[in-house]
Design brief:
Layout (H helix, E strand, L loop, with lengths): L2 H18 L17 E4 L2 E5 L2 H12 L4 H15 L9 E7 L5 E6 L21 H5 L10 H8 L7 H14 L1 E2 L2 H9 L1 H7 L17 E2 L2 H13 L2 H4 L1 H14 L5 H6 L3 E3 L2 E5 L2 E5 L6 H12 L4 H4 L4 H21 L10 H5 L1 H7 L27 E8 L4 E7 L57 E5 L2 E7 L5 H14 L5 H6 L3 E2 L7 E4 L4 H10 L3 E4 L6 E6 L12 E5 L7 E4 L1
Parallel strand pairs: 15-16
Antiparallel strand pairs: 1-18, 2-10, 2-19, 3-4, 3-11, 4-7, 5-6, 8-9, 9-12, 10-11, 12-13, 13-17, 14-15, 17-18
Helix pairs in contact: 2-3, 3-6, 6-9, 13-15, 13-18
Bound molecules: 6-diazenyl-5-OXO-L-norleucine.
Length: 580
């Protein structure tokens, strides 16, 4: 047999085997998860952290769904195929622009349980116990995600039954895990054993390897209860019973009433302008929209395009804007339903210009107060962002999280999903940094039913009232600074979308007083910043930014007509862009 014929035969046999494992319902091979990093399409696009989840979203668009259908189905798929951040047991925020031009923001952030209280992580000697706010049953806030999905449903076209089916199939039949996922599960085996009362599927006798199939029967059963009983399939009945039983076994405090009373809330979007663009962000309890507003307004009147991308001048200016915005975050920001956050003062242009009065070009500013034993920031990038757009003009930007990777590390016994460790986003004691090094005080103190302050920054940028950018990223406190830099890169530095996503990022958050930089940050720039007096700290990576940019025909060659969606997934992870 000729070598080419033989190879062809092998190829046919190989694809035959794989199509046997193809889902009965879905048009794509659920055992083949190759990440596509960029698409330019005309009908609709989805970018998320996992190729299977992006494909599920695309499938919904192709079946006649809109961006909201894709958003619901993609989030549900992420809860199965990306258990470190995709979730049923966490919470998130959605910023959306409807085809008719209306703007919506949906808050499905977790809340402190009714039994939560200000000093719940402080012992009799006044010591704060972050190990309790960051791991195990007591670190979990009341989950908001399922309420968020049902609050989104009225804007979608397809029934929940159809939107949830791909997730059920992926949980029941399984999917192949990658080498990185295997490594991550193996490295956490002992931690999972420590924080679980019932052994979860994520722990197995031997080690996980690249290409193993992860089947999640308990999670499939939970998804079916949600399919059959709606929101009550999670917040009441069997799933609620399993959550409360889990709490009892692990000394947690979430009760039936917490679950039954949970409500996702539509809030007034935080909107501001920047150089003629309208920027639509999330209001409190996320600091994201306001921080972005503050940082962008602090640099708007400076000649950034002249300074240039990653020039010492532009980077220093942006660092100093970041420092000042994060100082305000620590002092003033928290759940505005519980604390009077002075949003109009903090976003007032003359206040922000005043804030920059002590900025000295070429010289590092100061965070002034002594630093109360700040620990280094952990290298977790395990929140997740999805950006979606459709041809009707619906645009959806969602960031969702369990907080840390795999949240509290506790899986609800019999229900198959991880609980979040979002309680650590509260200021558990004034001056005590959370896992991202962020400090806070009264504005973000724990109270029953209060939502913990977030940095998540799902964002939509409008040009002439039409979608221009749909973007966001995970990364804890680095989220607002990454979104800030990505928008500046595109608007001020006229950078192409892939570079805006993948070029090195930097981050300052007031305290600790240092600049975090990605490892590919240029050497000469490091030297310039150090000379100005900055302390630099290298990090493996900052964020995983997903961007959809709307291109108009002038941006492409003359044969193209109308608008196109350029969807770009971050190279830092397995993130994938899909569209048609
Ligand atoms: O809401 C917040 O700001 C955090 N819980 C987000 C956590 C996160 O991004 C983790 N990944 N890096």
């Amino acid at each position: 047999m000729k070598k080419t014929t033989y190879l062809l035969l092998l190829l046919v046999l190989y694809s035959g085997c794989h199509s046997l494992r193809k889902s009965e319902q879905l048009s794509f091979n659920t055992f083949n998860a190759v990440s596509q990093k960029k698409v330019i399409v005309q009908n609709g696009a989805v970018v998320s952290a996992h190729p299977l989840a992006s494909k599920v979203g695309l499938e919904m668009l192709k079946m006649g769904g809109n961006a909201f259908d894709a958003a619901i189905a993609t989030q549900l798929a992420l809860a199965v195929v990306y258990p470190n951040a995709g979730n049923l047991g966490g919470g998130g925020f959605m910023v959306a622009r409807l085809a008719n031009g209306d703007l919506k923001t949906l808050d499905y952030r977790e809340k402190a349980p009714i039994k939560g209280f200000k000093e719940m992580y402080i012992d009799e000697n006044g010591k704060a116990h972050t190990e309790l706010s960051q791991n195990g049953h007591l670190s979990a806030g009341v989950p908001g995600t399922v309420a968020g999905l049902f609050a989104t449903l009225p804007y979608a076209r397809l029934p929940m039954k159809q939107l949830i089916q791909p997730a059920i199939e992926l949980a029941e039949k399984g999917f192949l895990i990658t080498a990185a996922e295997a490594r991550s599960l193996n490295s956490l085996k002992k931690t999972f054993e420590k924080y679980n009362t019932v052994r979860p599927v994520f722990v197995k006798a031997g080690p996980w390897s690249d290409g193993d199939t992860l089947i999640q029967k308990d999670l499939a059963a939970t998804l079916k209860r949600i399919r059959d009983n709606g929101q009550k399939g999670f917040y009441e009945g069997e799933t609620a019973r399993l959550i409360v039983e889990e709490m009892k076994r692990g000394h947690g405090i979430i009760g039936y009433k917490d679950l039954k009373n949970y409500k996702a809330i539509f809030r007034e979007p935080h909107v501001f302008t920047y150089k003629g663009y309208s920027i639509v962000g999330m209001p409190m309890p996320s600091s994201g929209g306001l921080l972005l507003n503050q940082m962008m307004k602090m640099v708007e009147d400076r000649p950034l395009p002249e300074y240039g991308f990653l020039s010492p001048r532009s980077v220093q200016l942006m660092i100093e804007a970041e420092r000042r915005a994060f100082a305000d975050r620590a002092e003033y920001m928290g759940d505005a339903d519980f604390y009077p956050v002075p949003v109009s003062m903090l976003s007032n242009e003359s206040y922000l210009q005043d804030r920059m009065k002590d900025f000295v070009p070429g010289k590092a500013g100061s965070s002034k107060i002594t630093q109360p034993g700040l620990s280094p920031v952990k290298e977790s990038e395990e929140t997740t962002h999805l950006s979606i757009i459709d041809r009707d003009g619906n645009a959806v930007s969602i960031t969702t999280t369990l907080n840390n990777s795999y949240g509290s590390k506790t899986v609800v016994g019999g229900a198959g999903f991880f609980l979040n460790d979002e309680m650590d986003d509260f200021s558990i004691k004034p001056g005590v940094p959370n896992m991202f090094g962020a400090v806070g005080g009264e504005a973000n103190a724990i109270m029953p039913g209060k939502r913990m302050l977030s940095s998540m920054t799902p964002t939509i940028v409008l040009k002439d009232n039409a979608p221009f950018l749909v973007l966001g990223t995970p990364g804890g406190t680095t989220i607002p600074t990454s979104v800030f830099q990505t928008i500046i890169d595109i608007i001020d530095f006229d950078m192409n979308t892939e570079d805006a996503v993948n070029q090195p990022k930097f981050h300052h958050q007031w305290l600790p007083d240092r600049v975090d930089i990605e490892k590919n940050f240029p050497q000469s720039l490091r030297a310039s910043l150090e000379k100005m007096g900055y302390t630099l700290q290298e990090r493996e990576s900052i964020g995983r930014t997903e961007v959809i940019k709307v291109l108009y025909k002038t941006a492409l060659n003359e044969n193209f007509k109308g608008q196109f969606f350029e969807a770009v997934a971050d190279n830092r992870g397995n993130d994938a862009a899909e569209g048609y």
